[in-house]
Design a protein that fits this description.
Length: 776
């Protein structure tokens, strides 16, 4: 990979592949994934290879392949594959001679360009392709290929269409529907998901040019099982350039725009849409999409001044993917743990959204954060059902969530257990319960940062109260200790299953209950109408008594006297300690499972990811720096960072503890999860939470931005090798620009509104007028 290709205006905007290797296709397919939140397309090459994964997903279109599988985002019929034959030889870069190869993702415009010279049997061709998913027209993907024979005349044949012979690793999610080619030009394929019965209308059309001049060539028409295509035969003179453009659209019965419409009407809409788009043409559509990207970047761009150029690219890469993967157009949908860039985690949403992805949106694009928070409101039915099925009350959010009505969708069986040879049981769907307070925390954070009363009144307070009702019902009375415990859970550290009193879970449940008590009083006094409505629905009066009685009796693990270490759970500190050097220095995550089964790992003092560190991050003021450091020193050496969520939290914590070198090192490691030299890490898709985490490292870590108890705090700790960082921040509806240098903090008000903006910097309070410059 080459991360320094962009120069001039494109400096630190280009992610480039400079060598073709068909063993490493997954890397660029995922990290160069295109999308617009409505859909995501993995960037498979135009020509086919054995190890490719050609995926195209439409947000929220979950389907269950059969009874024994969990629902997943179906891989829809493919547009991207082209069969290109050059003078009778199939274009195949594994053969012949390849020169000047590059594939570039331009993060600024959302366009991929691929270019090379290919010589086979003495015939040399120049090839350029461009592809984008429009940020303006959500239903549109477009691609273009240019082929020029350089040293002879050539007969070029391109076969292109819609290929429904695709699956999710073998699972076929579609019934084949009608296929049709209108006027030899507009190709249509209808497919319907097998269980959810969502209809997909996919259409494509082509335009051909020779040396820039449009040519009309009648194609051969082909229809096959789950496949419809056209084949163009073009004779080119030596040096003559063929331009082959392909516009592709997807519409589904799940789209809000088509709610209640009959399929035949969607088909008519889709045909008209494509006819109109084809009149506009590839280049103009590309320019329009690039313009939308430009607007986006003006809203979100973070500017870093540092000799470490890679850092600037890394944050842009992260933000590009956060935009591409997030269905901001529709609050019935969440963000998948791999975004829309691969089949990993089946498109399901985890706590990754609330604690890692949402903060970027909350502080930068609050309307998108609102949509994500509303998604959880939409899933309340499933959360209430999960609580009831488990004998609890209130809302117990699913560990993995898919379509809003699906409830819990975590698969039950996972990787092989090396001792038994059987599949390992995945317990998270049953007992990884902290997701419920993570949801409550994220929407409270959204409320505190935005002051969005409308959201809280219509959605947020109901979630806050119902999650508290869940926790109150979940607590278990321990008669001997005369306190409430939360037994048999998995905390954030998934290498410890069936533990009692995971500190993170207990503290956050306590926090959730306290918050509900606080808002009970507030609403009763300040918003009596709303209070009455919610009281009627959730019986708040009765629940308040239960909350008050229980909240002070929840066991909150305290730091040990000897060393300040907080027990992660009741048994962690008494488990076996082994030498973890080999696994700490691993090249690939999860290497410990080559030597141990999960049951064995459960009995060792080893952690997968940040656990108590996340608690310090969320409830920062409850713990002193000394306690944070003591726990860091104890737990970090035992943490393998086997989850991509781990490094960014550790980075923010290292910043909080003013360990700048460590913080920077962790930031770099987090940035390299997808962008690093390891060509296999992203095969199943990019790491969505880690990408959100990269934003957190910079804004929450290095710039020290935090919402604490509703107030804004900015305590910068810029890494030594950075001179400056400048970023947008939205606080209480006011757009701010924050600039941090080594010893100066500048905050600028960009919005015209006069809403008061107050914040503290290292304990001192400031009130912002238009601009403030603070030496720190
Ligand atoms: O949510 C995470 C979890 O914390 C660790 N395993 C992967 C999940 C999805 O990213």
């Amino acid at each position: 990979m080459n991360y320094t290709k962009g120069t001039g205006e494109l400096k630190n905007w280009i992610v480039s592949e400079n060598e073709f290797n068909s063993n490493n296709l997954g890397k660029c397919e995922a990290i160069m994934c295109l999308g617009n939140g409505y859909m995501g397309v993995r960037s498979a090459t135009e020509e086919v290879y054995l190890n490719e994964t050609r995926d195209h997903f439409v947000s929220g279109t979950f389907n269950k392949f059969d009874e024994n599988e969990v629902t997943e985002l179906p891989n829809i019929p493919d547009f991207t594959k082209l069969n290109i034959t050059l003078d009778g030889e199939r274009l195949d870069l594994e053969k012949g001679e390849l020169k000047n190869y590059s594939r570039d993702l331009n993060l600024k415009t959302g366009v991929i360009t691929r270019e090379f010279n290919w010589t086979f049997k003495g015939k040399e061709y120049h090839f350029i392709s461009r592809r984008f998913v429009s940020l303006k027209e959500l239903n549109l993907m477009a691609m273009e290929v240019e082929i020029t024979p350089l040293n002879m005349d050539s007969a070029v044949v391109i076969s292109s269409g819609i290929d429904g012979q695709v699956t999710n690793s073998g699972a076929q999610h579609f019934h084949e529907g009608e296929k049709r080619i209108y006027n030899k030009k507009f190709i249509e394929m209808i497919s319907t998901t097998t269980t959810m019965k969502i209809d997909f209308v996919q259409m494509t059309t082509h335009a051909l040019k020779k040396d820039g001049v449009e040519v009309e060539i009648a194609p051969d028409l082909n229809m096959d099982r789950r496949k419809v295509s056209v084949e163009y035969k073009v004779d080119l003179k030596k040096g003559e350039k063929l331009t082959f453009e392909k516009l592709c659209t997807v519409n589904t019965t799940r789209d809000l725009a088509h709610a209640g419409k009959e399929l035949k009407n969607i088909r008519t809409f889709s045909l008209n849409q494509l006819e109109n788009l084809s009149k506009i043409g590839f280049q103009t559509l590309l320019n329009e999409s690039a313009k939308e990207w430009d607007k986006k970047w003006q809203e979100i761009d973070i500017k870093i001044s540092s000799k470490e150029e890679f850092d600037q690219l890394a944050i842009r890469f992260a933000q590009y993917h956060l935009i591409v993967m997030t269905p901001s157009h529709d609050s019935r949908m969440g963000v998948g743990a791999k975004g829309l860039s691969g089949e990993g985690y089946k498109g399901h949403s985890f706590w990754d959204t609330e604690l890692f992805i949402m903060p970027f949106f909350t502080y930068t694009m609050p309307e998108v954060a609102k949509s994500l928070a509303k998604y959880r409101f939409e899933t309340l039915g499933g959360a209430r059902k999960k609580a009831e099925d488990n004998g609890y009350s209130g809302a117990m959010f699913p560990w993995e969530s898919a379509w809003k009505d699906d409830g819990e969708v975590t698969p039950v069986w996972g990787a092989v257990d090396i001792v038994t040879g059987k599949a390992t049981k995945i317990w998270s769907g049953f007992i990884e319960q902290h997701i419920t307070c993570d949801v409550a925390y994220a929407l409270w954070q959204y409320y505190m940062v935005t002051k969005d009363e409308e959201f809280m009144e219509n959605y947020g307070f109901e979630i806050l109260f119902d999650t508290a009702i869940f926790w109150a019902s979940r607590l278990e009375w321990n008669e001997e200790k005369k306190e409430y415990h939360i037994n048999n859970v998995i905390g954030p550290d998934e290498y410890k299953e069936h533990v009692n009193n995971n500190a993170f879970t207990n503290y956050m449940a306590n926090w959730n209950l306290n918050l509900a008590i606080e808002y009970y009083e507030k609403l009763k006094n300040e918003k009596p109408e709303l209070f009455n409505r919610l009281n009627e629905k959730l019986n708040l009066d009765l629940n308040l008594n239960i909350w008050m009685d229980k909240v002070t009796k929840i066991y909150l693990p305290q730091p040990r006297e000897i060393d300040g270490v907080i027990p992660q759970d009741d048994t962690y500190l008494s488990k076996e300690i082994i030498d973890l050097t080999k696994y700490k220095n691993q090249d690939h995550v999860g290497s410990m499972f080559k030597d141990y089964s999960l049951d064995q790992v459960n009995e060792i003092q080893v952690s997968k990811q940040a656990d108590i560190m996340v608690l310090f991050y969320l409830l920062e003021n409850r713990f002193s720096t000394d306690i944070k450091r003591a726990n860091w020193n104890y737990y970090e050496p035992k943490t393998l960072h086997d989850s991509s969520l781990s490094l960014s939290t550790h980075c923010v914590l290292a910043s909080d503890m003013n360990d700048k070198e460590m913080a920077y090192d962790l930031f770099r490691r987090a940035s390299e999860i997808d962008l690093g030299p390891n060509m296999k890490t992203s095969d199943h898709g990019v790491h969505a939470a880690s990408l959100g985490g990269i934003w957190q490292c910079i804004v929450n870590g290095f710039a020290g931005v935090r919402m604490l108890g509703g107030d804004l705090r900015i305590d910068p700790k810029l890494p030594e090798n950075w001179n400056e960082v400048k970023f947008p921040l939205n606080w209480h509806g006011v757009n701010l620009t924050v600039e941090v240098t080594k010893n100066t903090l500048i905050v600028i008000r960009n919005s015209k509104n006069r809403t008061e903006v107050k914040f503290t910097v290292f304990g001192k309070e400031y009130v912002l007028d238009k601009k403030i410059e603070i030496k720190y």
